[in-house]
Structure formats: C-alpha cells, structure tokens
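Tutorial sheet, problem 5. The two components below are modelled jointly, 556 residues in total.
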Amino acid sequence: MSPAGFFEADGRRLSRGGIVLLMAPFFGLILFAFFYPLLSLISISVLEPQPTVENYQRVFDNPVYARVLFRTLRIAVLVSLLSLALSFPLALVMANSRGPKAIFLAACVLLPFWSSVLVRTAAWAVLLQRNGLINQGLQAIGLTTEPLTLLYTQGAVVVAMTHVLMPFMVLPIYGALRNIPTDYSRAAAICGAGPLRTFREVTLPLAMPGVIGGFILVFLTALGFFITPALLGSPQEMMIATLISQQMRELLDWPFAAALVGVLTLFVTAMTLAFSRVFRFDRMMGGRA
Amino acid sequence: MNPRSLLLNAYVYAVLAFILVPILIILPMAFSETAYLTFPPQGFTLRWFGEFFASSRWMDAMWFSLRIALFTAITTAVVGTMATYALVRGAGRLGTLFQALLIGPIVVPHIALAVALYLFFQQTGLSGTTIGYVFAHTIIALPFTVFTVAAALSSVDPALEDAAMSCGATRFTAFRLITLPIILPNVISGALFAFIISFDEPVVAFFLAGIRDKTLPRMMFDDIEQNLTPIIPAIAVLLTALSIAILLGAALLRRVAARNAATPEQT
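Model answer (structure tokens):
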C-alpha cells in the first residue's frame, strides 16, 4: 500500500466495475463541489482582468496586505505555541488515566470540540466585554481602576482561537502517547532511568509525531480562521480570512480575493505535503489510535 | 502523590478550567431576566427560549439548518460508506487517489472553499438552495464519516462475506446481510457527526446565505456581531444539549459496535 494509505485491502476483491461504481459518487461530488470551484476561483486570480501576475504582486508588494500576511502568520504561530503548552500536559494526564477520570477528561476535551464555534466565540465576547467578568475581576482585585479594552484586540483573537483549536492539538498528542506500550517506561526504570529521564528519552521522542501533527494541524487551521477574528478582532488588524471576506463581499474585487485564496491554499497545501509523513488524519479526527 | 505530579495535575486542572469556564459562564445567562448579558445571571426566566421559539426568523433558520443537516448526514453516510467499502475490498490505485483527495477538505481552509463555492453557486444558480448547502457540508463532513466507517470496516472479518458468497449470496446480499449490520453503529455515528458538523457550520453559511435563506449559524453570527442578545445563550444551551446527546449517542453506538466485533470470537 502507498505511504498515503490508511487502510489495507482485505477479503475477496471487488470487480473493477464494482469499485468504479461504488467510488463514482464520491469522485463526482468532490470534483464538482470542491476541486472544480477551487481551481476555477484560483484561475480567476491569474486570468483577470487579463492574464497577469499583478494580483499576486499586490498581495506581497502593498505594505498593507504584506502586514496582514505577517500578522496572520504571527497569530497562527502564537496560537499553536499556546495550544501546545496547554495541551501536552493535559494529553499526558489523559493518557495515564483510567476509569471515570479518563472519561471525565475525554468529555472535557470532546464536548467543546463538538460544540459550536459561534457559541464559544460568543462566550469570549461576553467574558471580555467592558463590563465582563474579566474586567470585573481585574477591578475587584485592584489591578486596574478603569475597565480595559479587551474585546476587538489581537489578544482576544489569540486567546479565543486557542480555546477553539486546542482539541486539535490534544487529540493527536493523546493518540501518540496512548500508543506507547507501558513496558517501555518500565524498561527504562529497570535500566535505572529516573522519571524525568524516561520522559525525555522515551516518552517525548515517541510522542513527537503526535506533537508535530497537532502543531501543524492547529497552525494551518489558524491561518485560515475566519469566525473568531471576524467577531473578536479589530477591523484595523485583519487576518487573511477577514481580508478575503472584505475584498469579496464589500469591495467586490474578486481577482484580488482569488489571489489571496490562492496564496493561502497553496501555502497550506505545500505545508501539508511537506509534513505528510507525520499526518495520520484517521488518528487526528477522532483520537482513535 | 509526589510534588512533581501534584504540580502537573494542578496545571492540568487550570487548563480544564480554561476549556470549560467560558462555556459554563455563557449557559446560565440564558435564564437571566436582564436584557443584556451579565454574570452572575439575575433571576430566572425562560423568556429567551420563548422568544427564540416564537420568532419566525429564528424558526425559519432553525428548520432550514435542520433540513440541510439531515440531508448532509444521509448523503455523507451513503457516499462515504460506498467509497470506503470499495477501498477496503481492493480499490488499488483508485483507492490511493480517494485517500489523497479526501485530505483536501481537511487541509484547505473553509474560507477558501466558501469563497470558491460562493462564485460557483452564483454561476450555477445553487446559491441559497438547500442542495447547495448539502453539497458544501457533505464535502466538509465526509472525511470524518469515512474515518468512522473505515474503523469498523477494517475490523470486519472478510471471511464472513466470503463464506456467504460461497453459499451463493451475491456480493450485495453478503454486504447487506453480513457486513452492514456489523458496521451499522459506526455508519450511524458517522452520520451523527456529519449532522452536527453541518448544523454548526458557520463559514460556508456566512458566504452562501442570501437575505432570506439564512442558516442558524449565520443568524447567530449576525446577532453576535450586532447586539449579542440573551437569545444567543439560549441557543447555546440548546446546541450544547444537542452536542451532548449526539456525543453520547455516538459513544453508545461505538460500544455496540465493539460488542458486535467481539461476538464471533466468543461463540
């Protein structure tokens, strides 16, 4: 099977015609509603108003747009780092828990994962508003006398995006940790390694595929994030997705919006291909290792 | 407990608080008597739920979203199961292509898909139609359903089907009577996941919505952006209840599936 393959073929094989027939709806659907629209959008970016690379030059040459790209990268890196710092210890405790505690921890991670992004974003809007709980708390303990402007800032976007994307980091790390046979750390202990050394030399290297996979997944998802920056961010500090939306819906500059989509899509695809070895999407999706 | 693991546990509980507190704060606000969002909530009222269910705008959006989610769940389960079955029964090179293409909707940002479909649907007249949304949401949900179904299919002993076919059953009969009942719990839980993905999907809905045909997430987006009324926490309570129900349902189905898979060895 190819390196991209998740599943082994098994049992009596289907006839060629049967396979084509069974796969036809999938291929029809994904070509019609995914690849064709995406490629024709990107073709607009190089064909309109006439065959040109002008739309792409604008993305990189205009300092306003270059700043949006840079800001998007910086926020995505920050969100990924924060998610990693919060997720790794949680995944570690999850992987070492059994019984009710394990179920409780899994529920804490999965429930937000399957609940509405809008609900979670609204929750942060409520927490961060001028008379919200966080400002009330800060004033109560005397850290500030005036309510701070927390909403519509980059900080708000980073915190809320971390909250939304964290499960994508926890699940692959948990999957990797869970797959480490418990004998390994016992063997390390017998050989005289302390818990810290066992962690550094056994657990961490074996967990790395999960860490890298989760990091890249959160990073790439954060790059194209729309809802949270649109609702919690400042209009003066756009990310690429909010810029695309503005160009598309308000300024109606479709070729330029298409070029932005092209830049984003090509970058994300290249990153995915570069890291294709560590991507085990079947593990990431449900955490079922 | 030694100090190091005490520290680790304290840190992890702080992380759990970060995950849960925002959700636990917004839910009780649904019952507050105030017309603005405040914590702690004051008094107790079901007024906001009443307003939600009495508003024809919200109800239209909810039914529209429910219809889209239902069709998405069915389409995803059928298309996904067909392709996944072909995959595990020897699709060869076509199967490799299938798996490569399946990655597309996972990695390509939803904003890119949304903008692409916005243009494409305007050209084809699918804007704002149920079928347009079902196409978009099926694309987004398919990978989740395929992985759920594949997990079950790869654990079904292919000899069972071979035996049925040796006894004269056609491939389809063997699938229908032997394989499908075994994998059905996973197919249904894959469909449930597709349902909730579609029902909660905000980005594509943001771009595809016309003035009249707004999905529930699109209506919520507008409300959060403009005035953030207590209707949002009320919907949050309903959506969270739905998520819990679907997660529990899927977990239960997985338990049934595990028992099904274990049965042949025991007998």
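Marking note: Chain B touches chain A through 100 residues (CB under 8 Å). Full credit if you identified this.
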